[in-house]
Design brief:
It is built from seven helices and no strands. The protein is 80% helix and 0% strand. The chain is mainly alpha-helical. The longest helix is centred in the N-terminal third of the chain and has 25 residues. Helix 5 runs antiparallel to helix 6.
């Protein structure tokens, strides 16, 4: 059974990177278009709106790094920390079921990023091409 999965390891790592990064690339891009509204939401949650450029950089830059497999482990670690922090700040402690689901979603994404920290970006990554390792 392991031989079957091993045969598809590299394409699955690439697919996993694309899937986990999609939400971050999309969210970062949408924050550019909705800049003022996002700053207002952040301020309402007690986070200074002046941090929005860093949030956009983390989501869009980190997401694109994961897609490309560039500095995968570092980008994945940053997005894991970001996911946990946003879970606690924006979704934690609420009795609302939607917010609880969003909290758990962020933790699940952090778990996926920790797998990338542990295993790297795989064969189909810029890390493999530039540095000869995944």
């Amino acid at each position: 059974m392991n031989n079957f999965f091993d045969r598809f390891r590299d394409p699955l790592v690439l697919l996993g990177r694309l899937l986990i990064a999609t939400i971050f690339v999309g969210a970062g891009y949408s924050k550019i278009g909705g800049y003022e509204a996002t700053q207002g939401y952040m301020a309402a949650m007690g986070v200074p709106g002046a941090l929005l450029p860093l949030v956009i950089f983390a989501e869009l830059g980190g997401g694109l790094a994961i897609v490309l497999g560039f500095l995968t482990r570092l980008a994945a670690l940053g997005l894991a920390v970001f996911s946990i922090a946003s879970a606690v700040i924006f979704h934690g402690g609420s009795a609302d079921q939607v917010q609880q689901i969003m909290f758990m979603k962020n933790l699940a994404m952090a778990g996926g990023f920790l797998f990338l920290v542990a295993h790297g970006g795989g064969k189909y990554s810029l890390d493999a091409k530039l540095f000869g390792k995944s």
